[in-house]
Structure formats: structure tokens, C-alpha cells
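Session log. Operator J.P. requested a structure for one protein chain; no other inputs attached. Running the standard single-chain path with C-alpha cell output.
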Amino acid sequence: MDTKSGARERLSRSRRAILDLSHRIHAHPELGFEEERACAWLEHLLADHGFAVAHAACDLPTAFVARAGSGPLHVGICAEYDALPGIGHACGHNMIAAMAAGAAIAAHAVADDAGLTITVLGTPAEEVGDASGKVLMLERGAFEGIHAAMMVHPAPVEMLEMHVIAASMFEVHYTGKPAHASAFPELGINAADALTIAQTSIGLLRQHLKHTDRVHGITTHGGEAPNVIPAHTAARYIVRAENLEELEDVRRKVLRCFEAGAIATGAALEITGGTKPYADLAHDHGMSAIYQRNAEALGRSFPDLGVLGERMAASTDMGNVSHALPSIHPMIGIDSLPAVNHQPEFTAHCVTETADNAVIDGSLAMAWTAIDLARDSETRDRLMMPR
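Structure written below.
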């Protein structure tokens, strides 16, 4: 039996456990840095399949590193498992976690014969947008010694190299002064007005932003009562651009809009976060081509999305990983249209029979890709070159 057949056979024997993991995580959504059950379930499954598991990796309680094999090429597979507030696994992180475990289990079965070391990195809090799991784990050395990294993400349709741009998330706090809104309004400093001025300024700024820039946010606190001048307001915003350099330019412009609100009203302004942004994703085209061949061998197909593919833009901390080592982040289709990521309808699609088939295909495509990376001498040597 060759290595790819061996990987497939091992995955087939673990199919029920892998799909059960996906469904359990989906049924028990947990927010970023709170994924205690999902993390534990992944750790237990991998330990049961012969992986050496380090819990609370990098001093993050819901991160882990699980390793198996002793081959010269070291491949990292990233698992995400945090959910979105209110709509659960509307980005399919339950599937991402299951595919990471499935790929690792399949590859581990033939790792020594294939010349592989396999590490699963449990990376929490991808949805938080700043100082996330992968960003912190990169800083703290979790990816050291790994030659290449990969993960597969669910989407409405198959995409080999999705348009992934840089992003920075931060929180804004205005502090004013309360007063009776009718009897003594002149004694108050209106923090809600400060936020309104900032949001109006951002609206006017949009004329001067590139078409590839994105600015969006929510108000998280708007005051206490309509008859009290709001003494405190808060918002959470995300700024995006094609790359980190352009992101910093847009971020400065947007921060000036928030400063305008403070100047106009006299409210005090505090901005927190945004110091550890997500980078754009540098796809390793050689690895992508290998993944595509393996996915197509399993019956997957990659439609030409044309302009639509360029217009769609998202962000992930896998971008930061891709600037540190060769990486891929293909999207696997679950036939969810018209439902798309971050909609509650997409949440429901992430535990369908189609989604389960995608979990198995994504697992095997990654395992086969890891095997091909190790056995192709030119690719292996390129990945193992010192950086």
C-alpha cells in the first residue's frame, strides 16, 4: 500500500470520530479565548491517535500544539475553533478544526514512510481581529522549526487562493460628563455626539479611500438613558487594506476621525487594541498547485470566479503565518448559496451532509498535499531552505 492509500485508509477508519468532533463543536459554540471544550475535544482526539499534545501552548489556555512523526519535512496544520457572537459557527470553524485533526491523523499514519513530521497547532480566537491566537503563537515561537503551514476553510464555493487582505480591529471609548438632558444640558459633555461626529467623518472620508480599503464597525455602548447626557460611549471598528503598509495609512486617517469627535465635543478619547493587526495572505503558489491537484483527484473543482473573486475580501491571522513561512489557505465549497459566511443560514450549512463530505475531502486533500511536499525533492528542498 502506498503512502496516499495508507493515509486514506486511516482517515476512513477515523471518519466517525472526525465528523462527531465537527458536530460537537458546532453544537457548543465558544467565543475567542474561551474555547475550552473545543480545545479539550481536539486534544483528546489527537492524543488518542498517538500525538504528543502540549496543552495551554504559548501561555494561552485554549491553545495547543500536537506533534507526531519524525520525518525531515515539518508541516504545520492550523486548527481554528472559535465562534461568532450570536450566530455561532457561521464561519465554519467547527469544520476547520475537524479537517485539521483529520488531515493530521491521516498523515500521521504514513508520516515516517513519507518523511514527515506533523504538528497540529490549535490556534484560538481567529475572529477577534487583533492580538489573536496565531499572532501571539507566532511571537512566542510555536511555529519555529515548521517548514510549511496549511489549513482549509469552508466557503459557499471552492476557491484556491482567496483574496485575503490586512486588517486591524480596535475599540474606541469616549468619556464625557453626565447631566440632566432637559434641565441642565449645558452642564454635560455628550460622548454620544463625539461618536456621531466620528462616524460622520468616516462617512465623508470614504470618498478619499481606495476601492480596496474597508472601514466598518459597531456601537457597543451608546449611553445610559435618554434623559441623561451620555457620559460614556464605545465602539468597535475594523480597518482593512490590501497590505500592512496601506493598512497603516488608512488606520491613521480613521483615527483622526475619532479624534475629531473628541475635539468637537470636549470628550476624552481612548483607543485600545489595533496594535497586532492581521497581515495580507501571501499564498505559496507551488503548494497551492499541489493542493489543487489533490483536491481535484477527490472530485473537487475550482470555478473561475473572475471579478467576483477579486471583489470578495476577508482577513485572517493566517496571513501573519504566511509571511513567516510558506502557507496555503484554500476554501472548500459546501454548496451553501445564497447563504454566505457570517450569516446564520451559513451556520446551518456547516453540519449538513455536504459539509461532512467537505470535512473528509479537505482532510484527505491536506494529508495528500503534505505527502507530496515531502516526496518531491525540489519542493521539499525549497521549503526546508533557511529563511
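Operator note: The longest helix spans residues 3-27.
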